[in-house]
Amino acid sequence: MDQRIVDLSHVIESGMTTYPGLPGPHICDFWTREASAANYDDGSSFQIGRIDMVANTGTYLDAPFHRYADDADLSELPLRSLADLPGVVIRRPFESGLATAAEHFDGLDVRGKAVLVHTGWDRHWRTDRYGVDHPFLTADAADWLAANGAALVGIDSNNIDDTRERARPVHTRLLAANIPVCEHMTGLDALQHSGFRFSAVPPKVRGMGTFPVRAYAVLA
């Protein structure tokens, strides 16, 4: 049977804004092709890039360490919690309301699955609108997902929590249950409700709780 891979990640570009108030990445050459050519006699040349960025850039994944100092950082996440997970999509168009609550997951089998909340908010990516009054999950939704065994939770908006409030109950509850969180996703409209495998794997960096990922789905 043929398979199709769907990219669910935003492109990281120099100077871009991911989260309002955080600096954009600076991307440049550390080793240029022109300078490197002098080191070889066969016409070879190479580029080595350099990037300076905060961890919360582009489409990224939060490990428990992002919220809890004594819990698993990126280097300690098992691959089984990030790669080749069965996936399920819940459709919650932002035009119908910003909050996704526990009731919206009622009857859904999420045990051991990556649960991806498709709101359509990614259409505002790289605009001033993106970081303001965005879709989010409620605290009771986080409790429901943890109680029902979700393996990973993702959303295609600025934050899985309501950033208008000075609290982060969804991060707090999901990460306490060792459920990684993937934010700033895109392309979820290309996925069916189920029948795909999901991966979002960051590098094994010790002492960090967040890093960009190339999130993608493999359709059966």
Which labels suit this protein?
nine-stranded mixed sheet, 13 strands, 220 residues, mainly beta, 3 helices
How would you summarize the topology of this molecule?
Elements: E1 4-7, E2 26-31, H1 33-36, E3 48-52, E4 60-62, E5 85-91, E6 99-100, E7 114-118, E8 136-137, H2 139-147, E9 152-155, H3 169-176, E10 181-183, E11 196-199, E12 210-212, E13 216-219
Parallel strand pairs: 5-7, 6-8, 7-9, 9-10
Antiparallel strand pairs: 1-13, 2-3, 4-10, 4-12, 5-11, 11-13
Structure overview:
With 220 residues, the protein is mainly β. The protein has helices at residues 33-36, 139-147, 169-176; strands spanning 4-7, 26-31, 48-52, 60-62, 85-91, 99-100, 114-118, 136-137, 152-155, 181-183, 196-199, 210-212, 216-219. The strands form 3 sheets. It has a 9-stranded mixed sheet with strand order 1-13-11-5-7-9-10-4-12, with helices on one face. Helix 2 packs parallel to helix 3 (169-176). The mean pLDDT is 97.
Question: Can you summarize this structure?
Answer:
It contains three helices and 13 strands.
**Order of SSEs:** EEHEEEEEEHEHEEEE
Shape: globular
| Average of the residue pLDDT scores | 97
DSSP strand (E) fraction?
A: 15-25%
Physical arrangement of strands within the biggest beta sheet? 1-13-11-5-7-9-10-4-12
Q: Report the uncertain regions.
A: none
What Rg is obtained from the alpha carbons, in whole angstroms? 19 Å
Structural class: mainly beta
Could you tell me the number of beta strands? 13
Q: Count of helical segments?
A: 3
Give the fraction of residues assigned to helices. under 10%
**Tell me about the biggest sheet?**
9 strands, mixed
N/C terminus separation: 7 Å
